[in-house]
Amino acid sequence: MRNLDEQTVTQAVLDLLAGTPDPRLKFILTSLITHLHDFARDVKLTEAELRAGISFLTQTGQKCDDKRQEFILLSDVLGLSMLTVAMNNRKPRGCTESTVFGPFHVEGAPEYANGADIANGAIGEPCLVRGTVKDLHGAPIAGAELEVWQADATGNYDVQYPNLETHQGRGVLRSQADGSFEFRTVVAVAYPIPADGPVGDLLRATARHPWRPAHLHFMIKAKNYQTLVTHVFRNGDQYLDSDAVFGVRQTLVADWVKQPEGGYTLNYDFVLNPVG
Amino acid sequence: MRNLDEQTVTQAVLDLLAGTPDPRLKFILTSLITHLHDFARDVKLTEAELRAGISFLTQTGQKCDDKRQEFILLSDVLGLSMLTVAMNNRKPRGCTESTVFGPFHVEGAPEYANGADIANGAIGEPCLVRGTVKDLHGAPIAGAELEVWQADATGNYDVQYPNLETHQGRGVLRSQADGSFEFRTVVAVAYPIPADGPVGDLLRATARHPWRPAHLHFMIKAKNYQTLVTHVFRNGDQYLDSDAVFGVRQTLVADWVKQPEGGYTLNYDFVLNPVG
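^ inputs. structure came back:
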């Protein structure tokens, strides 16, 4: 293993995977190293470019903290997240489609009773959200756990406010015996993903806009069903066809209906896919 | 750009590069995104595996500070650094070969007069290093800047000691009018690369050893010549054929000669490649 050149080094690295106990890890690393080396050769990566890439990844890691996940954001804007979601969530027709998880989920969202106001002081026009959690045959799923998170009218999630000590626009509730759920919140708006880090630099360098169409995040868990991670998007949003993270499915687009007495309502039903 | 699937998402991401002003960046990102998506499809990456990868990269970034560069180490153990060095340093026969930069170079190494002791208190057996900086025709190159850095007898670089306030085994000196240089230091030993971070986890998960054969780092700069980043390796080292970062070239292996009066000597001449 001396005098390796730009061709022979690849096999030398792969050969060292021979002793990897976990066959799945060995398989993944074999593909990763092969593609990584092919990429470097394909573009004839310079030493300065490798340094720039290392600096970019370092800054991306250092931008992360308990409220900010810049590597998820990077995966999202490179389409890797949506690709992975699409590969792993093939479902029977009729099931609610999945989309990206995003970087703004945090552990510890507060629990609410059905019907509660999860806005909890978030800025925005009031909105009543209602729906049912069902199976593929239309039967209600009782006791499903619905976790919701969303940006406020300024386009910020609660975790983006450095001094906010409570959760806003974020909560966990459960479907009722008839599968229904209901909560009050504020109207979701389109927002730019955070552009003050390396991912923002990347978007600017590629002249891409940072906007996501208005949406509510849902993660729905129920026994004997696959966990559903998805959004409901707002019909009419100007960014539905240019979502910065490639997440829009037509079946996830719904109407926010303005009410004569003020505020909005949104009705959306979720259909879960059974396990196995 | 709605309803993208695991195949169509790739072209959608590539299409957004259309407005990238820098053609080289566009070219690199096109290849990177293509390989990244192909990798994810080839291995059918799961959502849990993507999360694990994001967590690994996040930890790698967060392990970096002004004295530790875990992403360089990652690039090194994946062979990407050596591949890039090999691609970018094709030289006429007779020039000193290049090898990896490594993660232990820092700015601000102290300057020394020719003949000085750069160990500056580093632990180890004394060693006198001598040589000449020359061109391809054997003519001396005067005034070349030689930066040297190395581990001590315990296998640690100065920057790995958290409370060390001075530099040890690290310094900058200049070749004399006849191209010669000379300095005192300690004998280099084989050492394991730092294994207390994500790169160490990766090596353990793949049952790879972390050892590098004993070496001195050199970076040599001279006007009208390409900067040379290289090592001199110690002949007889048990890791010359299994360097954890794939950096050994036979032409860079030299004898550390034990002296009857104690200590060692190393003689090594460097041949620089002219610019252009």
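Chain A has two domains: 8-45, 70-271. The mean pLDDT of chain A is 96.
thumbs up if we can close this ticket
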